Request: fold
Amino acid sequence: MIESDSKTACLFIDKLVGEQQVVVKALPRYLKKVQGIAGCTILGDGGISLILDANGILERQLS
Amino acid sequence: MVTEEMAEVLSDYVETAEDTQRGKFLTFSIGKEAYGFEIKYVTEIIGIQEITEVPELPNYVKGIINLRGKIIPVMDVRLRFKKEAREYNDRTCIVVIDIRDISIGLIVDHVAEVIVIPPENIVPPPTIKTGFHNRYIKGIGKVGTEVKLLLDCDKLLNDEEVDALNSTVE
Reply:
């Protein structure tokens, strides 16, 4: 369940992996801005995880 | 402050670096055709690695990879040229190029070699727009009996997109 400025919504996901503190990196400039994605981060094992932006994802749904 | 003398030395250095790279092309193949691009754009060649997909991208942009802590997008050149997708194998390579301060990985079937093509052996592409990927081709290099299609890296990344991005980044 996520909550943005004024709205609340539930997200259906396949699987929860865990929770951790990460440093958000920007997506490469070449990729156009994807609404709902705030950036990405490099995990401890070298993998990449995308970071969702709660506000963006809700706005997109409503627009 | 860079003095005039230093600037001169610097420009000399840049010139030599350019000289040694001039006329050299990295060749690779996609399907049966041999392609090449100028070596000055290439920063490195790596094997295929785990790609993280990013939603809402054109199908030829496969996603992003972690290149020693730097996140770069990867583009499948095969799909860029509207060819059929092929499964990646151990010959598949990612050629990392640096163009206009943008790093991007290009997925190609396999990398062949670096060759020198003298300017007199490079002819402009046919003017008749017969194929869809004509616009990406800067010239056609003749090497012995073979021909190599020399790609225009700039166009490959799509001018409009790059310009649009540059204008939004302050």
Summary: Residues 21 and 40 of chain B are 6 Å apart (CA to CA). The two ends of chain B are 25 Å apart (CA to CA). DSSP finds four helices and eleven strands in chain B. The longest strand of chain B covers residues 24-30.
